[in-house]
Write a structure and sequence with these properties.
The structure is a single chain. The chain is mostly helical and about 140 residues long. It has one domain. It contains four helices and no strands. The relative contact order is 0.13.
């Protein structure tokens, strides 16, 4: 099985803001290939077009499927942490595996954004708007 330790990635030369654009671009390329592969197995549930119509039954099914995939990967990351308060023996965490599962979750999260028509700029703006809401809540002791 191939994992992240088996891959070399060239350092990205752009600004930090451009990194999110690069992630969305790469994921869009992957999504097209996934659509071809999954379309052979499940032609009735693979989107014909992206973004999908969010207010349609099929569009919502496709978005929920990606959200579930994200949740599954986050659960796999959490499962890498074996220590429990009631256990007497500390278990070492496979941090590399945990990080790989987090990257998988991020992959599916970005895929969900693409399906919904959210691009890197919109996600960036939404993130910082929500961050400002959270800062306001902290200041106001919400």
């Amino acid at each position: 099985m191939v994992n992240v330790n088996d891959m070399d990635v060239k350092e990205f030369d752009g600004q930090m803001e451009d990194r999110l654009d690069a992630i969305f671009q790469r994921q869009t390329e992957l999504e097209k290939k996934y659509r071809e592969i999954e379309g052979k197995a499940l032609p009735c549930v693979v989107p014909d077009e992206v973004p999908v119509p969010v207010n349609s039954y099929l569009g919502q099914h496709q978005i929920k499927e990606q959200i579930f995939r994200t949740i599954i990967e986050l659960a796999e990351a959490a499962d890498c942490m074996k220590n429990k308060p009631w256990k007497q023996t500390m278990m070492e965490t496979d941090v590399t595996h945990m990080k790989e599962e987090m990257a998988d979750a991020f992959h599916f999260f970005i895929q969900t954004c693409i399906l919904m028509g959210i691009d890197a700029e919109e996600l960036y703006n939404l993130y910082f708007k929500k961050s400002e809401v959270n800062k306001f809540r902290q200041r106001s002791q919400y």
